[in-house]
Amino acid sequence: MVRFSVHSAALLTALVLVGTALAQSSNAADSTGAVLRPTEVDDRFLPNQGAGPRFVTDVKTSIRAQLAIRQGKISSVPVFLSSFTYQDVAFPFAMVGGAPRQGGTTEVKTQLIPLSMYFDGYADANGEPIVLDVNTVLPQTLNSPNFRNAPYDTEFTQFADAVQRAQFSQNMQPDWHTMLAAPQLLRPIIIVVPRGLATVYRIPSGRIFAIVDTDFFVSQLNTIVQAQNLDVQALPIALTTDVLLARGGKIQNCCVLGFHTAFDTGQSGDSVVVQTFIWASWIDDGIFGGTLADVTPLSHEISEWMNNPFNANVVPGWAFPNGSGGCQNNLETGDPIALFANSGFPVTIDGFTYHPQSQALLPWFQRSARSDAARGAFSFPDGSLLRGPSEPCEL
């Protein structure tokens, strides 16, 4: 889905668009004089339209890079290599951090790119342009369980680390941790969304969200990645607020809330340089219903990145446990639970209750009859979501 290759002309166009957005007046009319208003919808609009949360993963590393990953000959975020066996077939995997049996703390640098969205042609009741400004949620994001410690069954720690400690509880040293450093904030960007490439909605609470054409957003993200100073040893995160992606910007194809990817960028000695990357959107309460809110998408992608940083970890084919149909054969820990109405797990920090998403644990993918994870669980922190191992599914 995500291809990080652009031309210099595209970069120039993006910078011009940003400048145009900053220079525009409060008159949001297009060249014909027509002004668009957000479509008023109720709190059940998305589920009533059959729209649900989706998270996309695609392999963008070269065959050379995939071989180098298996050989441990890459320059990227720190990883350890291991494997498991199912029906006499070995399934190797690479995960972020140090090996659980060796113990110690691995801290991974992070970079955060704030992305705000300006919707050309749209205005509110006062004639002001519609902008989904990510800066309004940036402090809460930085204070969220993704970067702050909170109490879990496995320890007082960050959310993704708590998940890792749960699934390796029988195989780790007590001091084993995989932590994210406080993000380095990169240059904020405003993306101008041309008329026709998005539809803007308002729910009764007054919150606004937008369904944006996937191809347009990804093309802009490609440009932004080229312009930012990304650190290959860090995890760069592009963050938006209340931005949902769909092909053609259509409700029928909605809604992608995040993705993680990896792509090789060159050679360093005998190692292939591989950059990992995440995009996720903060989602205001009430847009989807259930417990999907605030950092649910970001936590989904961070845990999946930690368990499958290069999108190369293959597991036995598994069926979605919520009855939605379809199957996958990758180690994507968030996907099996994403469509559960109670996928978000409440975690309160400084008086605000966040909803990071519960994750499927490694024993679920290994199809173990009994889980060796903390408390014999197949999902964490909510162990009630997955009661047994994955069910086989033919791709």
Largest sheet: 10 strands, mixed
- Which structural class do the helices and strands define? alpha/beta
Radius of gyration: 21 Å
Determine the N-to-C terminus distance: 19 Å
Outline: globular
Per-chain topology:
Layout: H1 8-23, E1 39-40, H2 45-48, E2 54-57, H3 63-71, E3 74-75, E4 79-86, E5 89-96, E6 105-123, E7 129-132, H4 138-142, E8 150-151, E9 156-157, H5 159-167, E10 177-180, E11 184-185, E12 189-193, E13 198-202, E14 208-213, H6 214-227, E15 234-241, E16 243-246, E17 256-268, E18 271-282, H7 296-307, E19 314-319, E20 327-330, E21 347-349, E22 352-354, E23 359-360, H8 362-366, E24 379-380
Parallel strand pairs: 1-13, 2-17, 3-18, 6-10, 6-11, 6-12, 6-15, 14-16, 15-18
Antiparallel strand pairs: 4-5, 6-7, 8-9, 13-14, 17-18, 19-20, 21-22, 23-24
Helix pairs in contact: 5-7
What does this structure look like?
- Mean pLDDT is 90; it is low at 1-31.
- β21 (347-349) and β22 (352-354) form a beta hairpin.
- The protein is globular and about 65 Å long.
- It has 8 helices and 24 strands.
- Strands 2, 3, 6, 7, 10, 11, 12, 15, 17 and 18 form a 10-stranded mixed β-sheet that branches.
- It has one domain (8-21, 42-313).
- The protein has helices at 8-23, 45-48, 63-71, 138-142, 159-167, 214-227, 296-307, 362-366, and strands at 39-40, 54-57, 74-75, 79-86, 89-96, 105-123, 129-132, 150-151, 156-157, 177-180, 184-185, 189-193, 198-202, 208-213, 234-241, 243-246, 256-268, 271-282, 314-319, 327-330, 347-349, 352-354, 359-360, 379-380.
- It is of the alpha/beta class.
